[in-house]
Amino acid sequence: MLIPKRLSELDWRLFLALSLTFFWLGSGAYYLTAHIGWDEFSKQPLDTLGSFLEGAFAPLAFLWLVVGFFLQQKELSKNNEAMHQQHIEMQKSAQHAAIQTSSIQISVQHSQQQSFIRMYEMVRVTLGSVVGMLYISSQGPRGVGLIDSDKMSKLWSEMVNGDAEMFSRRFLLLSATDEEDMYDLLYGTEIRARHSNNFVRQYARLIDGAKKCDPEGMLTDAICDSAHGRLYEIMLEINDAAYSPQKS
Known about the structure:
Elements: H1 2-9, H2 12-36, H3 38-42, H4 46-139, H5 149-160, H6 166-177, H7 182-187, H8 190-213, H9 218-224, H10 227-242
């Protein structure tokens, strides 16, 4: 079974060369037998035998040289095709690796965003408490006294029960009326300045964290457009105005 299979894999040029070789050798043997005789052929001088054999085998040598060239060309073509297929497979592997790398990066980025959102919810409540303390200091009995202790307790209860940005919205309403000195409300005393600076510092870190895990900026826009974010911008504007040459 193996011999026929191997024969079927041989190139047709090789079959042709073998056939011509056997035909040529057979013709040469017939010529020596019929016209010269082996005894007479063996009695020829060595230089004559060499010239005869050289002329007899020169066509075979040329034939096998040509066949060898075509067979070598065929093998080179096969090697080139194999290298081309290998190159295609390498490209596919590189593309697959790039897709895997992109998927891993997306997964890591998604995980970072989820972690940031969870952290933001916790910090958001903490910042709500900071703004609440700031609001008590400016609007409560120890401030301008517009809101009494009972009302302040109700507002604080609402904040604790889930409305973390309630006090920030109240500061935004005060800023929108233009009837209050926002610098005095936010930085008028040492306690207020400490609360405001603490708020600004923490919110700036939140924005930096959002930019790192969200290159498209959706999280950054969301936290900047919130009530906390608007209050953060107001605090920055007040700081810039307070330390500008015109203010000094």
